Amino acid sequence: MAKMTLPFEVNDDPARKEFLVNQLMEMLKELQEHSKPSWGKMSPQQMVEHLIWTFDVSVGLIQVPCSTPENKIEAYKRFLTSNLPTRQNFRNPVLGDTLPDLHFKTLKDAIEGLEKKIEFFYDSERPNSKTLQTHPVFGPLDVEDWERSHYKHCFHHLQQFRLLEAQ
Predict the structure, then answer these.
(1) Residue 32: is it exposed, middle or buried by C-beta count within 10 angstroms (0-12/13-18/19+)?
(2) Could you report how far apart the first and last alpha carbons of the chain are, in Å?
(3) pLDDT single digits (tens) 62-90
(4) Which of 25, 96, 111, 156 could form a disulfide with 86 if both were Cys (CB 3.0 to 4.6 A apart)?
(5) Against a cut of 0.90, is the pTM above it?
(6) What sign for the dihedral angle of Cα 30, 35, 36, 39?
(7) Half-sphere exposure of 15 (CA within 13 A, CB side)
(8) Within 10 Å of residue 76's Cβ, how many Cβ atoms?
């Protein structure tokens, strides 16, 4: 598997979109059913379907509660504009230790599904494109902050499967 190296720059708007729309898909082509993570318990397909789930949350197809106390949300949101990476073995408070059920027949099908979700996320004509959507940690986010969250989240999982290294 060829590992790509990219700068980790969450505040570079064009780079974020290029990463999510093109580079992510290119790197996921290297992912195999038998690929082992550097940390965590997810299989490659579970990881991809987990990314799909987060895109569904970000466009309002899935509603989740925010577990962060209201008085801490602004401090937590500052993480989104920092170049600090998501830590290994971070547990989503909504998902906990539960591994996601698989919804696609194959890893390839899941990757194609993720590509469609990303296209939908960037479709400015989609319903709710201007509506704040609740993130389980950061609370209500606009599209730009969701894009930052997706950037960090996808970068994190590509590193998990040794497909990407930060410069």
Answers:
(1) exposed
(2) 18
(3) 999 999 999 999 999 999 999 988 867 66
(4) 156
(5) yes
(6) positive
(7) 9
(8) 15
